[in-house]
Each structure stands twice: as C-alpha cells, then as structure tokens.
What we know:
The protein has helices at 2-13, 23-49, 53-70, 78-101, 104-124, 136-161, 166-191. The protein has 192 residues and is mainly α.
Amino acid sequence: xxxxxxxxxxxxxxxxxxxxxxxxxxxxxxxxxxxxxxxxxxxxxxxxxxxxxxxxxxxxxxxxxxxxxxxxxxxxxxxxxxxxxxxxxxxxxxxxxxxxxxxxxxxxxxxxxxxxxxxxxxxxxxxxxxxxxxxxxxxxxxxxxxxxxxxxxxxxxxxxxxxxxxxxxxxxxxxxxxxxxxxxxxxxxxxx
Length: 192
C-alpha cells in the first residue's frame, strides 16, 4: 500500500520533464517518509491503547536513536518489519506497565539488565547490512555515536527510575533492551 502511494506521488512529481531522472529517488524518499509516519502513528495508537502515550514515544525514540548507529536485524519485507515492530512495541509496553506495578527489586534487575545491554551494544556495534555496508570510517563514527547515545540513555534512565519519572526511565530501558535484541538477532543472522 505504501509502495503504491509513493509510486503514484513520485509519478506526479516527475511529470515535469526536468525531474524524470529522479523518479526512483523521489519514490524511495516518499516511501521512507510514509513508512516512518506509519510506524510513528502505530506507536501513538499503541500508546493510547495502553494508556502510555508518552512512554511509547520515549521507547520508540530511544530505540531508533541507538539503532540508527548500532545497526541490527532487518526483516526481509516491509510487512515483516511492521509486524515485528508492532509485536516488540506491545511486549515493551507490557513490560513498562508490569515494571510500574512491582517492587524495587524488579527495577534494580532491569537496571542491571540494561547495563549488560549497554555493554553488548559497546562490544557489537555497529552491525551493517548488505543493503547498507559501512566503510571503516563510518564504522568507527557509528560505533562512537552508538556508544555515546546508549551510555547517555542509560544515565538518563537511571536518573528517571530513581526519581518520580519511573515510567520514562522504564521506557528508556526498554529502548536499550530492544536495540540490543535487534543487534543480537543481526549477529545470529550474519553467522548463519
């Protein structure tokens, strides 16, 4: 559906003879914009369903911030990607709700688990893909950014969990956990 819409919009934009060479570029750019908007809309809807709108957005943005530079698993089709995103978002929102309803021991376990995830991100990132191979300079730069972002998110989540912003802290923790999970999935994908 998104592919069809982006193709039609690109055709309209390329009706002018000056832009016919850029059709594929326009189509791809429109596809990326529409896909991103669709994913964000889904995150918003799930946040509203779980009554965790802010938390769902914080989770999504922290996950995307790390994933952009750490890399990780990519589904073979857009539909699989979307289904994986929806399922993982639901699981993480359930974890946030659960963490908020239990005692401090679970919170401390989550923090320790997040620290382990940050260490794994430091050790494994970046993991590129066949569609987006990274040269040695990009790998070095992406690793630096992935490490910096994940460590900053860890520190902010620790502060939030230990103050009155627990749900935000849990959301950040879930973003780090999800980023690590897709890194591990990509590592398995590479080795097979």
